[in-house]
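Lesson 9: reading folded outputs for more than one chain in a single document. The general rule is that every protein is listed as its sequence immediately followed by its structure tokens, and records are never interleaved. Here is the first one.
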Amino acid sequence: MRVLRSNKEEQKMETYRSTLGTTTLVSLLSFLVLILRTEAQIPDVCVLSDTNRPPENSDITVVCGTEYMDLSIYICPVYQALYNQSLMVLNNEFNKPECFGTANMSAVPPVLQFKIPLNESAISACNSIFKVTTEVGTGEFSDFSNVQFINISGVINSIDPSAAMITYRPQIMYMFSCRYPMQYVLNNTEVAVSGVKLAMRGNNGSFISSLNLKLYSTEQYVEPLVIPAKGLSLKTKIYVAVTATNLTDRFNVLLDRCYATTNPYPAVDSFYDLFVGCTRDAQTKLSLNGVDQKAYFSFEAFRFVMHKNQTVSTFYLHCVTRLCEVSSCSSFLPNCDGANRRKREIQDVSDAATVSSPAILVGQLGSEEPRPASYASQTGLQSDNYSSPVVAVIVCIVILTIFVAAMAAYVVLHNRRKPLIQ
């Protein structure tokens, strides 16, 4: 009986050892997998990649776009440093999922991508730095003593998962920044249509994505202006609204200059300024500027003298626009005090956005149109149909007739009073 009990105990012990070994093996394998994931084992696509090396400062590419800041980092060096995409984050904000990037292993070379929307809430969510700087205006806009820029900056850093007192992983830190001028560049080479949004180019970055110019018929800016084929009457009031979209509440729209040309392109030698700096056309009224995300002004329809032989005069309106920070917009309006007014410099203009109108047609008649000829004939005023030379001849004949009749009457009366000779 004792022998049998001993054999059973040995069997139990053997089973226990086997179970313990299996459990230990599974635990070791799990721990090894965890270590491999933590240690960021290099993916197959990185083995033969030219970027399979330690991290360098040049590994990051920053694109300052019109709606997003796009950041790309070579991911193979990240793995080389014993990290992976789950351990790289914007500005150490590891508790916010939106601050992590997305690995693109199909790219050549593979990259880790971050996309930051250009609005203040998204920028501040991951604790990026949002700073406005001011510089002295130059060139055509020297009347405006200040020009503002936005600088958005931050860092993509690694998170070390080591719980021990020491680590063998290097700290990775990629710094980035984008400088967005609030006075920005757009070469408008296509005819713009009123109400159509214009996309800004992102060569140097541009903080807003579009501008919108519309023409209205009333000062309430509700009824769109309808331009007939025969053209508007001279001196017709035209109300213009320039609006920015996708714009943070920190900034307003500021019109620097609006002018008219006889062709749809703004970059021409021949133009007529409605207003620029302190100079303003007498019929132009600037009613809202630099205090909202839209700007309003009005002017009266006119004709270009070069179109004097044409039935309809056609011109296009162009407005040079920039942005200003709400708290300081008043300081960016031109100083038109005669004693302090700065002399304008004649230089090429950079950092200017121009939004254009559709064709504006103006006829030869004024707002008070003359009555048609048929009206005169109906009232019996036939003389309205005569030309000026004919009327002049008729008047001369009448005067001459009256003069001759007067002379004849004088002669007759004079002969009757003369005494007879005895």
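And here is the second record, again sequence then tokens.
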Amino acid sequence: MMGTDRVSGLLPLVVLTFLCESLYCKPNNDVRSLAKVTREISGYRDITQKIIHLAVQGKAQNRSYDRLAAFTDTVGNRISGSQNLEVAIKYMYSALIQDGLENVHLEQVKIPHWVRGEESAVMVLPRNHTMAILGLGSSVGTSSQGIEAEVLVVESFEELRSRGSEAKGKIVVYNQPFVSYGETVAYRAYGASEAAKVGAVASLIRSITPFSINSPHTGWQDYQPGVPRIPTACITVEDAEMMARIALRGQKIVVRLRMGAQTLPDADSFNTVAEIVGSEHPEQVVLLSGHLDSWDVGQGAMDDGGGVAISWEALSLLRDLGLRPKRTIRMVLWTAEEPGGVGASQYFERHKGNISNFNLVMESDLGTFTPLGLQFSGSKQARAIMQEVVKLLTAINTTALEEHGEGTDIEMWMEAGVPGASLHTADEKYFWFHHTEGDMMTVQSPVEMNLCSALWAVVAYVVADLDDMLPR
């Protein structure tokens, strides 16, 4: 038995040593085994427990939730280019300074300024029915008299093209089934231009959601170059399905649409920045982020107030514990994410010359619900290290490391080779409230935000404090 035990114990060690030495190489090609890095990471267990305790049971318990509630209750929603967004930036700038964080500053950018205006949609045939709608970002408006036209209901772009001869002069209603956000959102993004190509005068798109209580969802849409720009809005799942049923019965549907939407000149705005400056390599950066703008409905509590709050809280937790990592942890609260990552793109252009010093970029923009772990993009060597980092979080059961970090505001960094991580939560209900009037503090949980904050702080601190940067 002793001989067998020795063989069974040594074989995994031999294999581990081989894998470790082949997996982890520093940029200068010096070999450093993953086993050594694993031992280094395991040395952070006590610090990890202190961070978790402070966030979940200690004096900082519920702080991220309370801060978010105070912020959203005071400011409300914050669409790109609006006065409310500028109030939000000033609010956050002052709050970060008051919190004692370092290098708090604003970096100026230019952002889109689209205004919704008054809008309405009424089905006048076969009966009178007022529909709930939300115009889509960058949509043109109607004339003051509006548009009254017959409706053509389709379930797909393919059906629209096959019935293109029927669409001229009509309002196209898309009743596409929800498959996934990533796939179905194409109807919101391109529905107007596809309808315009076949002569439609407007488009109404079934909201991109798996669940509805007669709640329309807004979002940005993109006109295609060289295609006429027609008004476009989202309607509810219920109204889209109702019109589809009416159309199948062969009844004529007529809708009167009025939209006061307009695009104003680009506005001046800011990305908001705060740091804990590194003790040994202050020029090297772990970046935490969420976006400060929202849509002009609800409170923007979930999208993306939660990501803002836990990124701020991560810095506060480390500050409270007197933890200063070797590298700088920088929080950036992006502006104008909703129109397509506009503030983040300008930040990247301004800072990409220093890209070799960006160690890890992190973004939370899919809700701060019960955390499961991270989604990560990076080299195999970096993934092996990150897998060890999340193992520190066993106490709060957030050890998952999934493929493909995501986030509009960090994707350009990841495409350029910088390791990237996004918060992975139990987000099954995220798209129930996404871009709706329902995005209120009611969907937030202080307990869940405590856990998200703890995860965010632990990962940022450990990665920023390791002897070496993550390999690319």
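What the second record shows: The first helix runs from residue 2 to 23.
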